[in-house]
Design a protein that fits this description.
Radius of gyration of chain A: 15 Å
Order of helices and strands of chain B: HHHHHEHEHEHEEEEHEEE
Number of helices of chain B: 9
Number of strands of chain A: 9
Distance between the termini of chain B: 51 Å
CATH topology of chain A: Rossmann fold
CATH topology of the largest domain in chain B: Rossmann fold
Mean pLDDT of chain B: 93
Largest sheet of chain A: 7 strands, parallel
CATH superfamily of the largest domain in chain B: Vaccinia Virus protein VP39
Largest sheet of chain B: 7 strands, mixed
Low-confidence stretches of chain B: none
Helix content of chain A: 25-40%
Structural class of chain A: alpha/beta
Low-confidence stretches of chain A: none
Radius of gyration of chain B: 19 Å
Number of domains of chain A: 1
Number of helices of chain A: 6
Oligomer: heterodimer
Strand order of the largest sheet of chain B: 6-2-1-7-8-10-9
CATH architecture of the largest domain in chain B: 3-Layer(aba) Sandwich
Number of domains of chain B: 2
Mean pLDDT of chain A: 95
CATH architecture of chain A: 3-Layer(aba) Sandwich
CATH class of chain A: Alpha Beta
Structural class of chain B: alpha/beta
Strand content of chain B: 15-25%
CATH class of the largest domain in chain B: Alpha Beta
Number of strands of chain B: 10
């Protein structure tokens, strides 16, 4: 499959994993990486800086309607939902929290699935609630490829187990295997 | 989260067209994803069978259309969302705006929210003893929204957040001084907004007040596509006096809009712009 985007959802216990994944990506990584991670809603600065320290690709907290580009990571800003809009753009929203979360991983996943369909890789990591499980199923239903971090490796397994209960993952991977998958990913870029 | 009904792009366009044809309200340049999601929620919450069910109710029932206008505009915000913005309003903007002039400065809460921005501003003015020294305007898309704001009823689920925001804003009192708790329903003190002029606006803001010194227009443009962002920003820009301020959402920007040359960035963190004087 030739992919157009990677989207990653995570919550409690996912920070180390995300850091390792971002660290492993080469500056030439051919796809955009969309990050929908639960975070404290009133702390607006510091997170993107912390993730950037060791990352192989630039990470931004996008502005509304920002054009999505390959080789760049987009972190959902504090206290906003992050949608993927037709035309390959980010759209932000202050609509009510979903699963007690804003950003909600479900909403990011669902909207990304509707835009990228089978050309999307969805990855769900460690987390303490069920947010993301439905969205991951949606990615799968629309033909995308889904990866669940091996619950045995997760610091908190509620999110990955909820995902596996709802749909069948294409891959159940350790962090190292997720990294390997991404490093070998094929794209639609010429 | 379970979505029982999903609205497609064609259905979304059909709803938009029938509203435009029947009532003249134009949602064509609203951002598609959030608009679609709002439609899905409205269809679910009202028990419509599908988008056609919604259309048929909309086009035959004007009362329901008013309700729809209220429901389609995302109205959840928080009291004192982004406390640093409110500190800047209190410590820098208001002292500047109150300088000179014999007429009361006009301040306008321009985004269609559920009242939290207006009440937050009113609380600041009250704490500074300025509530009767300014003229407050607030816009809303429907009579229902105006009624709701006047009632002071806000989302009680957000009480903890509102409290925490007020603490971070470092107000003079306790947030609980400004509301009563009626069996779990939080009701803000509506005397705070007694002198407010409510302006009913349509989706393209073609009837805006003039001579405004401060506009709060936060997290409204995120629900527009770039065409409507430009259009509405132009309207709003015309209503700000030179040297006046415009605050937009922390993750919104005037860059990439035709309005950007008319403002200088006054505060980057909270996206406060100051209108140039020439």
């Amino acid at each position: 499959m030739n992919y157009k985007a990677v989207i990653i959802g995570g919550s409690a216990g996912s920070f180390q994993v995300i850091t390792r994944i971002l660290h492993s990506l080469p500056p030439t990584f051919p796809l955009p990486v969309l990050l929908s991670l639960h975070r404290l809603k009133h702390i607006r600065s510091g997170f993107v800086e912390a993730l950037s320290i060791k990352a192989g690709i630039p990470i931004v907290e996008p502005f509304d309607k920002e054009q999505i580009k390959p080789g760049k990571a987009y972190l959902a800003p504090a206290n906003y939902h992050m949608y993927i809009e037709l035309g390959n753009k980010i759209a932000l929203s202050t609509e009510e929290s979903v699963n007690h979360s804003r950003p909600s991983i479900d909403l990011s996943f669902i909207t990304a699935a509707q835009v990228y369909r089978e050309k999307l890789v969805g990855i769900i990591l460690s987390g303490a609630n069920r947010d993301g499980a439905y969205g991951l199923k949606k990615i799968k239903d629309l033909g995308g490829t889904i990866i669940v971090q091996d619950p045995a490796e997760c610091q908190v397994k509620t999110m990955t187990e909820a995902s596996l209960k709802l749909t069948k993952a294409d891959y159940i991977f350790s962090t190292q295997e997720i990294i390997k998958f991404l490093q070998n990913i094929k794209t639609t870029a010429p | 989260m379970i979505i029982r009904y999903e609205v497609g792009i064609v259905e979304t366009r059909n709803v938009i067209k029938s509203i435009l044809d029947t009532y003249g309200y134009d949602f064509r340049d609203y951002a598609l994803t959030s608009f679609k999601r709002r439609l899905e929620q409205i269809i679910m919450n009202n028990g419509f069978k599908d988008a056609d069910g919604l259309i048929s109710r909309l086009t035959t029932n004007k009362d329901y259309f008013e309700t729809f206008l209220h429901e389609i505009t995302p109205e959840t915000t928080e009291m004192f969302r982004d406390p640093s913005l409110w500190r800047t309003v209190r410590d820098e903007l208001l002292p500047d705006l109150m300088k000179g002039g014999s007429t009361k400065p006009k301040l306008w809460v321009a985004a269609f929210d559920s009242g939290e921005e207006l009440y937050s501003l009113a609380i600041i003015l009250k704490e500074l003893g300025l509530l009767s020294e300014v003229q407050l305007y607030a816009s809303a898309i429907s009579d229902k929204a105006i009624e709701k704001i006047k009632s002071g009823r806000i989302d009680s689920k957000e009480l903890e957040v509102n409290d925490a925001n007020y603490l971070r804003f470092i107000g003079k009192r306790n947030f609980s001084d400004y509301y009563k708790n009626d069996n779990g329903q939080i009701i803000l003190d509506s005397s705070l907004i007694q002198g407010v002029n409510f302006i009913k606006l349509n989706t393209v803001y073609d009837n805006v007040p003039g001579g405004i010194k401060l506009i709060l227009f936060r997290n409204q443009m995120i629900y527009y596509n770039q065409i409507l962002q430009d259009k509405v920003l132009n309207q709003i820009t015309n209503s700000v006096v030179p040297g006046g301020y415009l605050a937009i959402g922390a993750k919104e920007t005037l860059e990439n809009t035709t309005t950007s040359t008319k403002f200088t960035l006054f505060n980057d963190l909270d996206k406060i712009y100051k209108k140039k004087t020439n």
